[in-house]
Amino acid sequence: MVNIRLKDGTIKEYESGVTVYEIANDISGGLARVALGATVNGKTFELNDKIECDSEVSILTFNDDEGKRIFRHTSSHILAQAVKRLYPDVKLAIGPAIENGFYYDFDADFVITQEILDKIEAEMKKVIKEDLKLEKFYLPRDEAVKFMEEKGEPYKVELINDLQEDASISFYKQGGFTDLCAGPHLQSTGKVKAIKLLSVAGAYWRGNENNKMLQRIYGSSFTKKSELDEYLNMLEEAKKRDHRKLGKELDLFSIQDEGPGFPFFHPKGMVIRNELESFWRKIHVRNGYKEIKTPIILNEELWHRSGHWDHYKENMYFTKIDGENYAIKPMNCPGGILVYKNKMHSYRELPIRLGELGLVHRHELSGALHGLMRVRNFTQDDAHIFMTPDQIKEEVLGVIRLTDYVYKLFGFDYHVELSTRPENSMGSDEDWEHATNSLIEALNAAKLEYKLNEGDGAFYGPKIDFHLKDSIGRTWQCGTIQLDFQMPERFDLSYIGPDGEKHRPVMIHRTIFGSIERFIGILIENYAGAFPVWLAPVQVQIMNITDNQINYVKTIENKLLDDDIRVEVDLRNEKIGYKIREAQMEKIPYMIVVGDKEMEKGVVSVRHRKLGDMGTMTIDEFLDMINQKINGKVAE
RNA sequence: GCUCAUGUAGCUCAGUCGGCAGAGCACUACCUUGGUAAGGUAGAGGUCACCGGUUCGAUUCCGGUCAUGAGCUCCA
After folding, report:
1. What is the DSSP letter of A546?
2. A140-168: per-residue pLDDT in tens?
3. Chain B positions with any atom < 7 A from a protein CB
């Protein structure tokens, strides 16, 4: 007998060898119907797997991430089976479950078009209808290789050959289709009630650009048709929040053929930018930062000294002045360092925190450009902190806290990644270890969960990255904290210690917004263009009912302007409904409507973009209300 | 940079199986002075991304270039 401890803490006794399905069925028939697998002592089991020792068991359904993973992994096998039925010569690569669905990579000697995609989807529905059982079996390595060679699947052979010595090599068979796979899977294809293929895109075999480009088919699947429809609908809604679309509609910015990756900010976009920057200045003064501005073009020699020439040249732009070679800065650090180096420093001054809203240019690959999210010139809200080694933890913590404060203010969810030493980097192993450990200590002190991103650090040091989500859930790195022992060495930075001797400071490179451009992109998508009043390009639109109130409108306008409210007036010869509709589409937070009635009483009618008609009030009452929202940076 | 797709008026998009290009919205003028999400009439607006080729004739077919989108790679 085995003791099974369930999620709710109850312990039940079963015969040894009881299956996951039997346990689920014993709990309730309803649960058994929706069960997809189970977590058993932290490992994922299939419904048919037997349990032979005392275990903690948690039944997985489609509501669990791991349940979804099983479900979608089987979905990807259904895709592969359909493709092989229709096009037997296509070679299979890999096909995992991903965040919102699954994909499968194929090597086909024809282009997979939308028509072919439709055909494949129809075939998949047949596979589902046939309700094929998935059977798992194992083969020894040489037989496994032979099996896939006979099937003419070179990618699978490569995968098997790369498996660890002691790995057990498993296959799943469903009907006439067999795939190399570790599992886990569903019991049969019929469980996948709703499935849809979404797109095809190129993807390098094993993610390496030197390898062949395969065709990747993306899809998603659900246990019910209604869930699939809901998901597709959500995607449609998310597209409406796309910052590229809203940026055009709201006239915030543009990107033109004359400057791919070099965004133009329009008057309304500039308001948001300027508000963000003045907020940024305020919190940085409050947190002990000084602000500097360093040149965009500096002598090439500087970039040799900093290491950028050896490690970052591919991303840099260059120019010539009076026959001398100059570089357009891709980062602000060397400039900041030159400011530090311009005079002697005492340990009493440290830490020195030098902030800079610095415009940097980087040559990003043309295919990587994406609205404001990835551009070729952007303003980093940078800062470089020069400090003694024993100030590291406190300073890193300070930046973490400041970042958290800012992201929470905007109501953003974020996740944190710790990136360690990359291959092409400079410095000693000891320095890297010290720097990485310091970051880990600070993360632990801040009680922040983080994902480890091995080998993804900057060439001069490890980093903590803060990632924010766009409207369709793609994440973008925004804030970053990078610890650097290398640049102080290369630039021979020093401070005078209490002993009267020169010592080497340590540097932090950090951003909070990351890039103002990207951050604005994230803001647009998160607010769906309806910015909080403090950021709204136009805060109030005043509109008259008839020409009779033109002077009264101007009086109100002046009163609001006196209070630094961003106000626009609409005196056009149009009906009030028409004017309101337009202001509403522009997502202006407050509309003031005045007709003869308001004019006579000396009041205004106020309409809020979400709350609708708020009735009448005096101008002073209105100013009190809106100023409270602005000063408090209230979300709505 | 790579794979695939796309590029027609300021915006969103029709259309031409090769014969001098269309709608709605926006814009301008006039009529309408109307009370909380679209009043009416008229008008203006396009070298159909760019460069070449095929053809009597190309926006349409072919080739190249550029840009955009999805993804890969890369990264704030």
Report:
1. S
2. 888 888 999 988 899 999 999 888 877 78
3. 1-5, 11-12, 31-39, 66-76
